[in-house]
Design brief:
The protein folds into 3 domains: about 90 residues, OB fold (Dihydrolipoamide Acetyltransferase, E2P); about 160 residues, P-loop containing nucleotide triphosphate hydrolases (Rossmann fold, 3-Layer(aba) Sandwich), CATH 3.40.50; about 90 residues, no CATH class. Strand 5 and strand 6 form a beta hairpin. Helices cover about 35% and strands about 20% of the residues.
């Protein structure tokens, strides 16, 4: 066991898990489960030394997490069973008919077939908002009555939230690690081997993908070559994010569907990641662009007299062609973005840029084998960090800009620096605890650099935008 594994077990004895993909991957064959669900199941069936009870996990999966294609509908309809599942499902509210529908795509249950009765919807109104959910649900079949067709009813629901986290415990435990050790803790929590990175700088670049997990309404762009793990991070580590990869995107889907009077993805998640942005079809791009400009600027937008407000952040991710020296072929990084995202006024509303070409390509040697924080615990910590306002208070007191500087630049830098502090130095909860040298090097300067790239690229598109960053510094 390496030194990080030892310290993790000492400081987080109830929150760690032993990852050994050679032993566990076969257990989940045929089930496309995110890491936060896998870790929950492994943690539930591991002893203190990391030994797995494979039989118990397999039995649980067979009973409560059937593989795609399992004929659940026949069991419900013809056998009259009541079935308890841990599953992913999608909730849609029909305001016209005053009904709440659900679907389970992996098991072939459509929205027309699934109904959440009023007593369940009201009891869990906070957790059963529209969108994709994970939870423990109880299903029964209601046969047809007269002209009314039969349907599958969700008679009980328990949100998938096995951990009730304490930020104070997490912060105090951070004090027992130096910075290099802590960065390795974050890397392993993302399910990667720290030894697969060449230095601390590259590691910090990699964990920058977590910035939007911890800071509300943070908007970033990452362009990278294929195979650097973008999709995995945003699709597996948290149930509070929504990953869109390809397909069609509309204003209605993102913000508000006026025909159905339903809010969109933005209202229901901590962040939305648009992956493979070059392949996404943006319908009615002018409408979408106008809504995005307003939302990215202020966290709200008005659609047909309906005000949509959210703390959801946005990540744009795409591929970028590189030279043999691993540098972008085109100095205009955004040239390959869809037309809707190539306008400088829209791009300027993104706070920062991640240079994905500086990251290593993922390979088998980078897959973690060892002790790490349970992904579900880690994701709950990241989620809780979003509402920890003391970090922004510290950063706003520390960071100032020259007179007459663009307020948008200062806000962007402060927001990114705050996110870095939450990730790297969560134990700093007052300005007196801040190591200003470390804050400047690991929080402020990276924030300035990331915002600076956005400025440079906007200038290349439209020379009316200033290329240079204003002077932003610590008091």
């Amino acid at each position: 066991m390496n030194s990080i594994g030892v310290k993790l077990r000492e400081n987080f004895p109830q929150m760690v898990i032993l990852k050994d993909h050679n032993k566990t991957d076969s257990i989940f064959t045929g089930r496309n489960l995110p890491s936060f669900v896998k870790d929950y199941l492994l943690k539930k069936h591991l002893d203190g030394n990391g030994n797995i009870n494979k039989y118990a996990i397999s039995s649980f999966l067979e009973l409560h997490l059937p593989s795609a294609g399992t004929d659940i509908k026949t069991e419900l309809q013809t056998m009259g069973k009541t079935i308890l599942l841990l599953t992913r499902f999608i909730v849609v509210r029909d305001l016209k008919k005053n009904m709440v529908h659900f679907s389970i795509p992996d098991l072939g249950i459509s929205l027309k077939e699934g109904i959440i009765p009023d007593y369940v919807a009201r009891t869990h109104s906070e957790n059963l908002s529209e969108g994709e959910k994970w939870g423990v649900i109880k299903l029964t079949y209601n046969p047809p009555e007269g002209k009314d067709p039969g349907y599958i009813m969700m008679t009980d629901y328990k949100p998938f939230k096995p951990y009730s986290v304490s930020l104070d415990y997490f912060r105090n435990s951070r004090k027992n690690f130096d910075l290099k050790e802590w960065v390795d803790v974050l890397i392993t929590a993302m399910e990667y081997e720290p030894d697969g990175f060449i230095n601390l700088t590259q590691k910090v670049e990699f964990i920058s993908r977590l910035l939007i997990f911890v800071e509300p309404r943070l908007n970033l762009i990452e362009l990278a070559p294929k195979g650097t793990g973008k999709s995995y991070v945003f699709g597996n580590l948290s149930k509070y994010g929504w990953l869109v990869s390809g397909g069609k995107i509309t204003r209605a889907k993102l913000f508000y569907d006026k025909s159905r009077q339903q809010t969109g993805i933005i209202s229901n998640y901590d962040f939305v990641a648009l992956d493979e942005i070059q392949t996404i079809i943006f319908q009615e791009p002018a409408e979408l662009q106008a809504a995005l400009k307003s939302y990215l600027e202020s966290g709200k937008t008005s659609i047909d007299n309906t005000m949509i407000m959210s703390e959801c952040g946005m990540m744009l991710m795409g591929n970028i062609p590189l030279s043999e020296s691993n540098k972008p072929l085109n100095k205009k990084f955004f040239a390959s973005l869809p037309d809707a995202f190539r306008e400088s006024a829209l791009l300027d509303r993104f706070h920062g840029f991640i240079e994905g070409w500086k990251l290593p390509r993922m390979n088998k040697s980078m897959v973690l084998n060892g002790w790490t924080l349970d992904v579900e615990y880690f994701s709950e910590i990241l989620h809780a960090m979003r509402t920890a306002s003391e970090y922004a208070t510290i950063v706003n007191d520390l960071v100032v800009a020259e007179k007459d500087s663009d307020l948008r630049d200062l806000k962007a830098v402060r927001r990114i620096a705050t996110a870095y502090m939450k990730l790297l130095f969560p134990h700093w909860t007052s300005i007196e605890e801040v190591n200003k040298e470390e804050f400047n090097f690991y929080c402020l300067q990276p924030a300035i650099r990331r915002r600076g790239i956005i400025k440079e690229q906007c200038h290349l598109i439209d020379e009316e935008f200033k290329e240079e960053m204003p002077e932003i510094y610590m008091k």
